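Ticket 4471: requesting a sanity check on a complex prediction with EPU. Repro inputs:
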Amino acid sequence: MVIYQNISLKPYNTFGLEASASEFVECNTIEEVQVLCATFNLSERPLLILGGGSNILLTQDFKGMVVKINLKGIAKVKEDEEHVWLKSNSGELWHNFVMHCVEAGLGGVENLSLIPGYIGAAPMQNIGAYGVEVKDTVEEVIAVEINSGKLVTFSNEACEFAYRESVFKHKHKGKYIIVSVTFKLKKNPTINAQYGAIKEVLQQKGILEPSIKDISDAVIAIRQSKLPDPKVLGNSGSFFKNPEIPTEHYNQLKINYPEIPGYVSGAELIKVPAGWLIEQCGYKGKVVGNTGAHKQQALVLVNYGEATGYEIYRLAMEIQNSVRDKFGILIVPEVNII
Ligand code: EPU
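Returned structure tokens:
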């Protein structure tokens, strides 16, 4: 393991932002992660664990150690009549894992096709799309405790999953490095084609009884048509979480904005698409300097090439204030701001 000094993080974040790390190390095995934790006092210095870099906004140089997780490998660990359990190390590309499952006819993650990032980030923020969240297939997560270098296993319950949330973002923030995730997948998949856009694609293709491959293909087509490819236009997916507001507040807004979309998300709570709120504030497709809200999905902030992280941050705060002033709703970033 080599520790490099003053390394540019530009190739390691999907916003394509320039920022340097004081120290940078890559781990290729679980043992290397353990040795790193046991040898260095990682908890005593600023630490950034990096997978695909698809959920971070670097607003300044990072004066600490960046640990890039390169742990590869997918293996079958168990099988019964109905399920197969696959364990993936955390440095595998999420989409490669999804393709592995789809090709093997194993259901559960096909709606999550083409989500950028690595396996390790999937349970961290409970990735979700098109009616499915990863929490529904995660069996367990294995992580190295940063303080001791010891391996700790978290059951699905212990991960305390919620909408784009887990225990690793709160109670255990900065305490563990996820090294593998085990998924419980179905041999006879339950097809989830409820999401409007998926239904439309299947209808257009005349598919009445979709396979998981059909669902995956439909999701890939929808994402490619709506969401910018980070390789072409720097971005990190949805910048904000969709806010959940009291039903009473939602009903009040409906008087002035009868077309406001909303989905019941709990007792007396309605989830409102942040993309709609941002669009109503006039930001959809608006270019502000080197950044802006994407023209097809206002929830995605983009780097038109030369943006700084701080510039994107300033726009995000401007949008946050604008939504709060117009609707009285606080939208909170989903992206990790460094
Ligand atoms: N909408 C607008 N204008 C916009 C964007 C959206 O009016 O510019 C409204 C429309 O009413 C649309 C609704 O918002 O019907 C929902 O839009 P979309 O289907 O694009 O989903 P989303 O709620 O904006 C969430 C996830 C995405 C995920 C999609 C699809 C969050 C924060 N985002 O976005 O996840 O792909 O659903 O399931 O929950 C990500 O987390 O990075 C991400 C891309």
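Notes from triage: The chain has eight helices and 20 strands. Leaving this open until the requester confirms.
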